[in-house]
Design goal:
Length: about 70
Amino acid sequence: MSTIEHWLDEDVKVQRKQRHTAKWVFDRLRDECGFTGGYTIIKDYIRERDQRRQEVFGPLYHRALIKHL
């Protein structure tokens, strides 16, 4: 598990206002791990991670097909 994943998974246990933002993750990576990359890569990674984790619900059948059944 990556450092970022660990931090964000631990955030589930704290109040919403205390959770890591992309800026906070970037600052911690830079200060604690010597990260030399840019903020944008961190922001994009967290956004994509959040999108992958969202549950998607959809109909099992199209409504038009149900009318014909």
